[in-house]
Amino acid sequence: MENISTAQFVEELPVLKTFYDALPEKNYLSVPGDWLVAVTDVVQSRRAIANGKFKAVNMAGVAMITGVMNELGHQKIPYIFGGDGSAIAFSSNDLEVVQEVLSRTRTWASEELSLELRAAIVPVSDIRALGADIRVAGLYVSDAIKNYAFIGRGVAIAEALMKKGEYVIEPAKKGEYPDLTGLSCRWMPIEKQNTKIISMIVEAVDGENQIPDNILLDLLNLIQADKPEGHPAPESEIKFKWPVEGVGLEAKATGTSKFKLYLIAFIALILNKTGWSMGDFDPGHYRKQLSLNTDYRKIQDGIRMTLSLDLEKVKELKVFLEKQREAGLLRYGLSEQDQAILTCFVPSVTSDDHYHFMDGAGGGYAAAADNLH
Edge to edge, what strands does the sheet with 85-90 contain? Predict the structure, then answer.
């Protein structure tokens, strides 16, 4: 499989129809030996979130995915969003493009968001030399898009190497920014009555590659992973707010004037209120597709989810996880908050392949990672 392009590999990936299908290791493919993994994360993201910059942190986290997809001219690239950063796996043929995007993204995050974004590109061969791997599967989200599941501890190894200062991609020159067209965060934070938004990370204990399948199965059954009840962003809860939030950040990401973005947002608000369509844009269909295309469940060397759970279910989940942790079967981190937020990559409002990345608004995955034990 050497020299296979990123898009070719994605086309050959198995696409798992349910979250339960992502448990067996046999359903994954190892990426080719000449591939690489790019990783990013926001330095001191918890402090930034505590200072009210959770939208900016999430935008910085999504930026690499957006920039690379825009530069490659397609969306066929294995990616995963982790709240304050992200990871992609890609062919060596795309190395120059990805390096440039990461370099420019670091500069953009620093100058426009006042955030320090770490970035690194690690060869898969080096990851394997350390005893880890990058294995990937496609995970069905909707008929329009799929997410990607990563196992093998390779992403975690790449992130650890980045934080040690290895394989670093340096920032670009002042004012050199990536193409972040389509990156936005206009939606209201999502809050449901009588529930908590739980950001959860569950991983294997140190020295193990995999949580026992029976424990994962019990966990997924407990939270009803393939049922709609835990979805934090059902169609009925997705709402515009006026004046719209996030316009300033979107302007910094895309270079579009605030006036134009406010005008677009106002038109969208009217269309959503009235149900009218404009050209090929149907607001009702868009909102339905937005709910479908939200990445609230994912696998990155374990389970990562942002869920809406009632207080009794939260208590039950904590008891289950603590029991398994005490038995030495897993480690976990949780973050509780009242709201979830969406950061979106919308190549076109008239097609269904728009991406919506979810995190908790009170710390989210960054806080869950800090609580991992």
Answer: 79-81, 85-90, 36-42, 117-123
Q: What are the tens digits of pLDDT across the range 267-314?
A: 666 666 666 666 676 777 787 888 889 999 999 999 999 999 999 999
Task: Give the single-character DSSP code of 237.
Answer: G
The average pLDDT across 92-121 equals 97
CA separation (Å) from 329 to 211, 212, 364, 371? 7, 7, 24, 17
Distance between CA 212 and CA 273 in Å, rounded? 48
> Which residues contact residue 114 at a Cβ distance below 8 angstroms, ignoring those fewer than 6 apart?
56
Other beta carbons less than 10 A from residue 194's beta carbon: 7
- Give the 3-state secondary structure of 141-200: CCCCCEEEEEECEHHHHHHHHHHCCCCECCCCCCCCCCCCCCEECCCCCECCCCEEEEEE
Q: Are 242 and 267 a contacting pair, CB within 8 Å?
A: no
Instruction: List C-alpha distances in Å: 313 to 303, 310, 317.
Output: 17, 5, 6
pTM, to two decimals = 0.90
